[in-house]
């Protein structure tokens, strides 16, 4: 199984009291890169981005992950699977010294192995 994926790890938040990713065993980007899988039935010609939105609650737990921009049902399912693997990876945001819930939008870019990456990067 060949996989080629670019991870766009710009996390967009709804206000300044942002949760922080822990540096557990691996940095955040490396953790995602090592755990992402190209679904076997996903066409190798697919390329694009999935946006997953989720909440990091007051305890640092991920809640309510949802696809806000779909690419393909199999890519969407992989993006949701990855977000669910991030359990325990976040410290809650703080506002006025108190833990608060924070919403993230995480883009994950999928570039199929049959695509010319130079064309994709120029978009």
Main sheet: strands, sense, barrel: 5 strands, antiparallel
Number of helices: 3
Order of helices and strands: EEEHEEHEEEEH
Percentage of residues in strands: 25-35%
Number of strands: 9
Distance between the termini: 27 Å
Unreliable segments of 5+ consecutive residues:
1-17, 118-123
Arithmetic mean pLDDT: 76
Instruction: Give the overall shape.
Output: elongated
Helix percentage range: 10-25%
Task: Please state the structural category.
Answer: alpha+beta
List the domain count as a whole number. Answer: 1
> What is the CA-atom radius of gyration, in angstroms?
15 Å
Descriptive report:
- The protein has one domain.
- It has three helices and nine strands, in the order βββαββαββββα.
- It has helices spanning 28-35, 73-85, 117-121, and strands at 5-6, 12-13, 20-21, 47-56, 62-69, 90-91, 93-95, 98-100, 102-111.
- The strands form three sheets. Strands 1, 2, 4, 5 and 9 form a five-stranded antiparallel β-sheet that branches. The protein has a two-stranded antiparallel sheet with strand order 3-6. Strands 7-8 form a two-stranded antiparallel ribbon.
């Amino acid at each position: 199984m060949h996989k080629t994926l670019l991870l766009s790890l710009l996390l967009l938040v709804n206000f300044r009291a942002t949760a922080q990713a822990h540096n557990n065993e691996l940095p955040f980007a490396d953790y995602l890169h090592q755990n992402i899988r190209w679904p076997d039935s996903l066409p190798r010609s697919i390329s694009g981005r999935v946006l997953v939105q989720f909440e990091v609650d007051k305890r640092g737990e991920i809640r309510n992950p949802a696809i806000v921009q779909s690419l393909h049902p199999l890519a969407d399912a992989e993006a949701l699977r990855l977000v669910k693997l991030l359990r325990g990876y976040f410290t809650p945001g703080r506002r006025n010294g108190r833990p608060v819930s924070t919403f993230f939008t995480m883009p994950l870019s999928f570039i199929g192995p049959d695509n010319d990456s130079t064309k994709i990067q120029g978009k």
